[in-house]
Amino acid sequence: MAPRGLFVTGTDTGAGKTLVSSAILRALSRRGLRVAAFKPVETGCLDRDGERIGEDCVRLTAAANSGQAPADVAAALFLEPAAPLVAAEAEGRAVSRDEVLSRYAAIAQDADFVLVESAGGLLVPLADGWTTRDLARELGLPAVCVVASRLGCINHALLTLEVLRGSGIPVAGWILNEVAGDGAYPLALSTNRDTLRRFTAERDLGAMPFVESARTGDFDLLASLAEANLDLDALVAGA
């Protein structure tokens, strides 16, 4: 297993895990670390001329800028946008725990720092009797919860953080991610971070500002935002 790394989970699908992960990867790469990405399973993939493409894998490797091939980032890619267990069964397949752990070990051996980005939230089923929480526990990496800042996120965040800690998974902290730029629910959005601080002892690692979709592929911009708004030293150090 890698001596340093992070396990990035989120409050739910669409929390912005890939954006935050990309920002961290590029920022650490600019600091001179050999970074690598691992997406155990990606669903909702594309099929182009017989080749399966995981868009998150493509983004993560581009952000890491380490020569890692997108095809090597995930242990399994599935077409349907569903929980890995469900997407795999739709293709008559199953996610292999051994393949996931083997792929992680191969990635970790050549990197200074491995960022693992989960699919969906913490209790998403990967295979029968095996969830993302189980994988996080097996890898033993400090976990970061990406919180989508929107109405209802406080409950989702506190539940996720409680499950992490109760499962014996080291918790590096949480990152608030501003996912909306339309000005809806201004009171909730302006108070989410302070309210979370009042109800959890887990570390506030910062807040990523809203990024227009057209600019989410500008990884140097994301890295600069991470440097300015996240506690990268604490992220590297872990829990």
CATH second-level architecture: 3-Layer(aba) Sandwich
Uncertain residue ranges: none
Report strand %.
15-25%
What does the overall shape look like? globular
Rg calc:
17 Å
Q: How confident is the prediction overall: mean pLDDT?
A: 95
CATH superfamily: P-loop containing nucleotide triphosphate hydrolases
Account of the protein in words:
The chain has 239 residues and is an alpha/beta fold. The protein has one domain: 3-Layer(aba) Sandwich (Rossmann fold). Helix content is 40%, strand content 23%. It has 9 helices and 12 strands. The chain has helices spanning 17-30, 55-64, 84-90, 97-108, 132-139, 153-166, 186-199, 219-229, 232-237, and strands at residues 5-10, 35-38, 41-42, 46-48, 51-53, 76-77, 113-121, 125-127, 130-131, 143-149, 171-178, 204-208. It has a 6-stranded parallel beta sheet, with helices on both faces. Strands 3-6 form a two-stranded parallel ribbon. It has a two-stranded antiparallel ribbon with strand order 4-5. Helix 1 (17-30) packs across helix 8. The longest helix has 14 residues, at 17-30. It starts with a strand and ends with a helix. The mean pLDDT is 95.
